[in-house]
Every structure is written in structure tokens, then in C-alpha cells.
Design a protein that fits this description.
Distance between the termini: 16 Å
Order of helices and strands: HHHHHHHH
Structural class: mainly alpha
Strand content: under 5%
Number of domains: 1
Number of strands: 0
Radius of gyration: 16 Å
């Protein structure tokens, strides 16, 4: 599987415009503490997590996701910005979070009024309302329904052969398993996840794991 060479360029661009909120470097706080978990995030150095990052970022542009929707999913100024939609310190979750966050912070383009004018489609009111919901099932699955086709479409466009597709799928499964272990621990010791009882793995992991 070929990996894209655009990541260093994009990260350098966004680094000049985004506030520094790297969870890998941030000291534990009441908002982002993950008891008994000590995992250095390396999603940006892993081809599988990069695949998810670019799938989500490209999907946001291609579908013309409203910036307000991206900010609902990844607002660094919100209380518990990652934990509202994602499994904290899950590599694929963090790649998805950073893609939404980067898209939300991207400056407008010349002569393009809003993201939908990029050639995408307006987000339906029902999905936007679900993303705003205080019901964890509504908002998390609404996010997952956005991510799922983006990952599938990127895999299809790359025209992976059977061996490459299977290798990617197995890598997704590995990350999904790690996310599941984190989720099981958080359910019993992190109040942010006490109501996530419906969850097997994170939606970002499930969307990646289930691609065909």
C-alpha cells in the first residue's frame, strides 16, 4: 500500500494556525486524564492512522461538511474535547479528531464562501442535531456515520489489491482491539465514559475495521 507524502506539508501548515493541544505532550488534567493509561500517541507516524486522518480530512472537504459540525466534533475549547466523541488515547480516534479539528481551523479559500461550495453537499438538519445532542448514542453514531463512507471511499480509490486490502484491514483490527481495551478500562474508572455502555469499540475504529 502506498502512503501519501502530503502529511508533513499539511501538519506544517496547520501547526502555524492551530493552538498547541497535543494530547501526547499534555500534562494530565481533570479534563483529559486517563487513569492507569500511559500511551504515547504516535498516530502521525503510522501509515494506518494516517490513512484514517486523510480519509476524514478529505471527506470533510469533498462532502462540504459545515465548519460548525466539525467544531461540534472537535472543539479544543470545549469541556472534554476528545472524550465527547472519541475514546481518549485511541490512535485511530485521535487521527479522526485531529482531522476534524484541522478542517475546522482551516482558513477560508479565496472566492469560496463556505465549505459546501467546494463541491460537496449540505449536511442534513437531523445529523447536525444529533451531533449537538447530549445523548452519547445520538452524537457518537452520527459522527461514525460520517467517517464510515470516507474510509471506504479512500480504500476504493486507491485500488488496493487483495493482499494490500487484507493487510490494511488487519492493521485496523489491531488498532480497534487496542481501542476496545482502553474503552473497557474507561467505563469503570473515567466518569466521561460511564454512559458509554453501548460501546464495543470506538466509532472511528469500527468504521475503519468494517471497510470492505
Amino acid at each position: 500500500m502506498k502512503t501519501t507524502s502530503l502529511l508533513p506539508v499539511l501538519l506544517a501548515l496547520f501547526a502555524t494556525t492551530l493552538p498547541i493541544t497535543s494530547l501526547a505532550q499534555a500534562a494530565p488534567t481533570e479534563k483529559n486524564a486517563a487513569p492507569d493509561i500511559d500511551l504515547a500517541l504516535t498516530w502521525h507516524q503510522n501509515a494506518t492512522a494516517q490513512f484514517v486522518f486523510f480519509s476524514v480530512l478529505e471527506g470533510c472537504y469533498r462532502d462540504g461538511l459545515p465548519v460548525e459540525a466539525a467544531k461540534l466534533i472537535a472543539n479544543p475549547d470545549a469541556d472534554r474535547p476528545v472524550k465527547r466523541f472519541f475514546v481518549f488515547r485511541c490512535e485511530l480516534c485521535h487521527a479522526s479528531y485531529e482531522a476534524f479539528r484541522a478542517y475546522a481551523a482551516t482558513p477560508g479559500f479565496t472566492h469560496i464562501k463556505d465549505a459546501a461550495d467546494f463541491g460537496g453537499k449540505k449536511l442534513d438538519a437531523k445529523t447536525l442535531k444529533q451531533l449537538e445532542s447530549d445523548n452519547v448514542i445520538d452524537r457518537v453514531f452520527a459522527m461514525g456515520n460520517l467517517v464510515r463512507p470516507w474510509i471506504q471511499e479512500r480504500a476504493d480509490r486507491q485500488k488496493l489489491d487483495a493482499a494490500e486490502r487484507e493487510k490494511l484491514k488487519q492493521s485496523f483490527k489491531k488498532f480497534a482491539g487496542e481501542g476496545d481495551k482502553l474503552m473497557r478500562k474507561y467505563r469503570v474508572n473515567d466518569p466521561a465514559y460511564f454512559d458509554w455502555t453501548f460501546y464495543g469499540t470506538c466509532q472511528a475504529c469500527e468504521a475503519a475495521r468494517d471497510f470492505k
